[in-house]
Amino acid sequence: MPKREESPKFGGIGGGRGFKPNVEFGDKRPGARSLVVGPDGIFVHEDGVLRTVADAVDLFWSGVAHDPAAWTKAEKGYDYLLAHAFEGTREDVRRALNWLELAIERRDRSAVVGAARYLSLMPAPVLAADYGRLLGIFNSRVLGMVWQVTPDLDVSPLPPRIPKFGREAGFGLIRSVPDLYKTLAMFGTEMEDLVAALVTEALRYGVSLPADLAAMAHPPAARG
Fold it and tell me: What's the distance, CA 156 to chain centroid?
């Protein structure tokens, strides 16, 4: 797994995203400073000027760089990213993939789905620029598939060490974020074959998929 880089340093880079604290500062003596920390970010107010130290998006990226579950405590930042995913950059892709890899490592299915949902909304050309890394991550039945854990489940054809979530095994991204797999399939023959194989297996195990994704399944083998 590629080494994840350190989380971004704060420096007011998010000041242009419009986050403001819901605080009335009123009249203060000259030179007085106020530090405001909340869901909108970290701000300093001095001499009537509000400066952004780190806004909600900065806090989100800093949090998930170390704890994939931190996104649930930075919902304003995550919601902003979803709403502006069409403006996503290579740096946003890199950070999202870092988050996804850490969530997989920690077996945090909620965070895996959250990261994948954001990736699915990003511009396809920007996403495709990281094709090699995407292929390395998504070439995984454990990540894409979901199996119902029943007494009659034949585990012999399944990958080893599958994470379990209640009565299910596998992260199940092809069910949770099917649009991402439809996008990935457009990026190259190797990825298209990978997605087709996952779709075929998903249908075999009764996983419900959108019709256009299900249509990518390999045709049944001819019988002599």
Answer: 30
Count of residues in the chain: 224
Beta bridge partners of 32: none
Distance CA 224, CA 43 (A): 72
Q: What angle do CA 38, 98, 173 make, to 5 degrees?
A: 100
Contacts of 16 by beta carbon, 8 Å cutoff, 6+ apart: none
- The tens digit of pLDDT for each residue in 134-191 reads 999 999 999 999 999 998 989 889 999 899 999 999 999 999 999 999 999 999 999 9
- Return the amino acid letter for 97: L
How far apart are the C-alpha atoms of 174 and 208, rounded to whole Å? 9
Contact 77, 120 (CB under 8 A): no
Which of 63, 153, 149 lies closest to 108, judged by CA? 63
SS (H, E, C) 154-192: CCCCCCCCCCEECCEECCCHHHHCHHHHHHHCCCCHHHH
| Residue 37 DSSP SS3 | strand
Pick the closest to residue 172 from 113, 100, 117, 114 (CA basis). Answer: 113
How much is the pTM? 0.87
CA distance 89 to 119: 11
Cα–chain-centroid distance for residue 101? 9
DSSP label of 147 = E
Token duo for residue 139? 């070439």
| Domain boundaries along the sequence of the chain | 56-214
